[in-house]
Design brief:
The protein has about 325 residues and is of the alpha/beta class. It has one domain: Rossmann fold (3-Layer(aba) Sandwich), CATH 3.40.50.1820. The chain is about 35% helix and about 15% strand. The chain has eleven helices and eight strands. The protein has an eight-stranded mixed sheet, with helices on both faces. The chain is globular, with a radius of gyration of 18 Å.
């Protein structure tokens, strides 16, 4: 499936590299409201990056999935973590309250994360990312180890080989019912032929979105930036050997939490990435899909506590 036609080598679920592929009207239905948060706006290339901070304790920067997804779906995770940490969440470029303009690239996404750390005057912080955001967190750890206390990637695309993307593609296809799968392929073919529309792109995304969940009957709506997705997703695998080599040096401790029922293959994506370093750990959560904190409340918080404890003893 395709948000916008890019290249014929990226077919069907290859477009769905991370959570942010799902788009639609409305926003995530959060269980818990984030109260007492302080809003911020930080200067960045081409505009500003908007977000908020809540809680007290060691600083934690949240990185949402996508690329291009609305950051509001992390609200429940922020509530969970804010009991123990000072949590900052921001919208990556492509959607308000951040700049709608590019550049949309992996490198710029890394730079934007550092810009937020600078704007918050956090010399060092923990970073927690989900899906594409988990992949981004590992890239930030590799590129700027001096800025991080540790990194936690939640059900990410990995940084070894293809990060598990080929198997992810196959699993998304297998989980999608036949009728929806055939319609999705029809829309994908139209997009590749240059005949697709933005509305059809969103339709195609919605057709496969339930495949991300352990319970496909209980699926929330999303909104996403098509431009951000298309600008970043095609280069996600670029430079992964360098990222893996940097993580293997052990400069930054990190952990990976994976949903055992997620379509992202935790063996290829999570385990392979965790095994790069002696300063890492892997937690596979039984019965959880891609949105681990909703299907296993408290598990991500426990992993972050473990990361901080492990960091203190290393």
């Amino acid at each position: 499936m395709l948000l916008l036609a890019r290249r014929s080598s990226l077919r069907f679920a290859d477009r769905f590299l991370c959570l942010g592929n799902a788009a639609g009207a409305g926003s995530w239905s959060s269980v818990g409201a984030v109260t007492g948060r302080e809003v911020f706006s930080i200067d960045a290339v081409g505009g500003v990056l908007g977000g908020w901070v809540v809680g007290s304790g060691a600083p934690v920067l949240l990185l949402h999935g996508g690329p291009g997804l609305s950051f509001s779906y992390l609200d429940d995770l922020a509530v969970e973590l804010a009991a123990d940490f000072r949590v900052a969440s921001f919208q990556q470029r492509g959607l308000e309250p951040s700049t709608l303009s590019g550049p949309f690239s992996v490198g710029q996404a890394v730079d934007d994360a550092v810009s937020v750390l600078d704007g918050l005057q956090w010399e060092r912080a923990l970073v927690v990312g989900h899906s594409w955001g988990g992949h981004l967190a590992l890239r930030v750890a590799a590129a700027h180890p001096e800025r991080l206390l540790g990194a936690l990637a939640v059900d990410p695309i990995g940084v070894v080989g293809d990060g598990g993307m080929a198997a992810f593609d196959a699993e998304i296809v297998a989980r999608t019912p036949k009728g929806a799968r055939e319609r999705a392929r029809e829309l994908d073919d139209r997009a590749l032929a240059g005949e697709g529309t933005a509305e059809e792109s969103l339709e195609s995304l919605r057709l496969v979105w339930p495949a991300y969940f352990a319970d496909p009957e209980n699926v929330p709506a999303m909104r996403a930036s098509v431009e951000a997705y298309c600008g970043i997703v095609g280069e996600m695998t670029a430079g992964m050997d360098r990222v893996a080599a940097e993580l293997a040096r052990g400069a930054v401790p990190y952990g990976i939490v994976a949903g055992a029922a997620s379509p992202i293959p935790w063996g290829q994506a999570a385990r392979a990435s965790a095994e790069l370093s002696s300063r890492s750990f892997l937690d596979v959560v039984p019965g959880a899909g891609h949105i681990v904190w909703l299907e296993a409340p408290g598990r991500v918080r426990a992993a972050l506590r473990r990361l901080t404890e492990d960091s203190a003893t290393m």
